Amino acid sequence: MNHLKKLIVFFILSSSLNIQSQDKVLMNSFSESYDFEAVQKYDAAISVLNLVYVESSYEINIRLGWLNYLAGKHKESIALYLKAIALMPAATEPLWAIINPLTKLDSWKEIEKMYLSILKIDPKNAAANYNLGLIYYYRKDFLTAKKHFDISLNLSPFGFNNLLMSAWTNYFLGYKNQAIALFNKSLLYSPNNKSALEGLSLIK
Predict the structure, then answer these.
(1) What pLDDT, on a 0 to 100 scale, did the predictor assign at position 25?
(2) Which of 123, 132, 162, 169 could anchor a disulfide with 153, C-beta 3.0 to 4.6 Å?
């Protein structure tokens, strides 16, 4: 019985030491990757982490996603961020991160999906609502744009971008009184703003 207990203790200690050793290797690899990133040696930073790559590691996938983005390897970056999203489906962090390489590839349908995914997790997120509003505004889908701009504006009623974009959206929807009020509030934030003054001149 004592022999069995000694074996169990031995295996526990061995496993613990092995885990600590793996953690140290991983920490060193991350540290080296930061050093390479600091001097813009992105391929070297990627190589260091590829040596310890584990597909089930959220941290490695999201870090490599960022480094590949910096290296201009946008498709590789997206693939890694998608793995991070799958590993942590309740996190908004990788959803925000993947927008960077998607923007470089002009993948606006995918960007829209990411903002919608963020809003499923965090419905009142001001930045996601505002950016999604911009996508619909430039598609001339003003009703949907207004829905998202309204949320962002309610969260930050004296934010200049919220005021100005909401004003233009209301203008294109034919809501002239609302547009006038919002253009005037825009001018309180930024007196003589050309866009706000242009909007008012079109109505008056």
Answers:
(1) 85
(2) 162
Query: What are the structure tokens assigned to 151, written together?
Result: 């949320």
Domain boundary among 122, 144, 170: 122
The band of 20, judged by pLDDT with boundaries at 50, 70 and 90, is low
Same domain, 133 and 117: no
DSSP symbol at 157? T
Verify that 40 and 127 share a domain, yes or no.
Answer: no
Q: Report the domain count for the chain.
A: 2
Cβ neighbors of 116 (< 8 A, separation 6 or more) are: 132
Judge whether 94 and 111 are in contact, CB under 8 Å: no
Q: Rounded distance, CA 103 to CA 25, Å?
A: 34
Q: Report the mean per-residue pLDDT for the chain.
A: 91
Q: Which of 58, 92, 122 is the last residue of a domain?
A: 122
* Closest of 59, 144, 135 to residue 94, by C-alpha: 59
**Which residues span the domain enclosing 166?**
123-204
Give the pLDDT mean for 44-69.
97
Same domain for 26 and 82, yes or no, is: yes
Residue 149 binned pLDDT confidence (cut-offs 50, 70, 90): very high
Q: Do 113 and 191 fall within a single domain?
A: no
**Residue pointed to by tokens 């969260």:** 155
Query: What pLDDT was estimated at residue 22?
Result: 67
Q: Which structure tokens are listed for 13?
A: 């200690």
